[in-house]
Design a protein that fits this description.
With 541 residues, this protein is mainly alpha-helical. The chain is 40% helix and 3% strand. The protein has 21 helices and 6 strands. The chain has helices spanning 4-13, 34-43, 45-57, 76-87, 102-105, 115-136, 145-163, 166-169, 173-176, 200-217, 231-245, 248-259, 301-304, 313-317, 325-328, 363-366, 404-417, 421-435, 448-459, 466-472, 509-514; strands at residues 91-92, 283-287, 322-323, 355-356, 359-360, 399-403. The strands form 3 sheets. Strands 1-3 form a two-stranded antiparallel sheet. Helix 2 crosses helix 3 (45-57), helix 3 packs antiparallel against helix 6 and helix 11 (231-245) runs parallel beside helix 17. The longest helix is centred in the first third of the chain and has 22 residues, at 115-136. It is globular. The relative contact order is 0.14.
Amino acid sequence: MKKYKFLTMVAAGLLAVSCSDIDEQLPEGSGITGNQLTESTEQAPSRGEATFSGMFTMMGEPYYTYGTSYRADDFSYIMMAISQDCEGPDLHYPNSGYNWFNICGDMTSRTPSYANPYIRYSVPYNHIGVANDVIRSYPADTEDADAINKIAQARAIRAFAYMALAPYFQFNYQIAKDQPCVPLVTDEIIDYTNNPRATVGEVYDQIIADLDYAIEHLAGYVRPDKTKIDQQVAYGLRARAYLNMGEYAKAAADAEQAMAGYTPASREEVSTPSFYDISEHNWIWGVDLTQAQAMDYYATSASWLGSFSATSYAAGTGCYACINNLLFDKIPATDVRKGWWVDENLHSDLLSTISWDGVTGDAIATLAIDNVKYAFLPYTNVKFGMMEGIGSNMNDNDWPLMRVEEMILAAAEGYAKSGNEAKARELLTNFVKNYRDDSYVIPGIRSLTDEIWFQRRVELWGEGFAWNDLMRQQKPLVRFHSGKTSCLAEAYQFNMAADDQWMLMRFPQSETNTNLGIVNNTGGNLPIAGQNGNLRDGVTD
């Protein structure tokens, strides 16, 4: 395949620019005062509505963190989700010059001057800034129902954004509650030049306060679409927070509230590439990516996580998102999810349900189309389909922010860790046996909590949960076993102890230069290939 045409397409993307005010928020929020915003909203209600809508549209669109510069890895929260999974044990790309997520694979993502950690720090604070703008747009004592509804959703977004930061800058709540985490920025006026790190406990206090408010004030609200936050989404977000805090019974109760009325995708529904349409009935909350947003073809999930786009980094460079064979080998052959990836021989049952360029079945894996597609690599994912059909060059795949399957597994974990193992086993068995593997029986080869984690790792692969799950459970990062053949690039074959200080993100240099209150994370060393080969995680042993 000739690559120069692909590079020409990338160069053309560099000319793209953003016209959205929402994209110009500063990392720690805007400097507009509450009075100015309230007056502006009263004079021009459309501005307030645009700011409110922007909280949701900005979730997945190309972000232009560097002004008008185009980056193929700069697409808001979805980019963060991919980065976090690349740092985990189960998702990897080839170690090639086309891999914009290479620094997550080799963990140089802790370098403060690099773009990847800067984007991952800036995006949540931009979301927080916009949420704060919405909150400040209305009088604190407002009794207007619509205003209170918008404030409730803004506070839920703010909590979501803090949860996109907290687990990555400090160890988990149970062992590091009093340790420094990230700066808090609320709708109150703050000195952004001297805003020290709040403790983990203080950050979660803010998260819970915001979600308590949202749950209370979204009662009875019927949202117009699944991009918005209703009470069930708020319950789901609080379930995530409570899991991170070790409040397991509360987490289980909230997860039950979040999933009420939703059913998992059936075995038949996930026996073909899917997970791309917000209308899928198992999605509780998601990003509805428009075709206009997807015109930046490469800064999309379809470009990086899909394997079926005719205009993508993955297919166009052979830079496919693959599963670690350590996890793949543990999935039973009777489990429909085994087909979410091709095996070492490039076979997947899912390929028999689709065609690309007139080719069907396993031949799709070896299909090569000049300037469009390389052959798949062993363990390439075929989990994610395409909104416009296999082989489409429109990368407008939607993104799942919360699925009912996640909430089922969250509830199971909450029950298991709060002493109600019988309920946990019932939930877990019913889900897997009825929707993924009709031969399923909870195995005795691992603990119940490790079995739930195994199910999360398989079910939620590629959706951004890997690193948070690792930190929450105080587990080591295990990517390879000494003496076992690995499908990962050699540079990514290393393991890290659960308390390794290199696990913690570093604050970007631009933040420490402007916020004098920040004391950065230090300690640990850049991992090297082959280190800690005898570490085990309880799942891939």
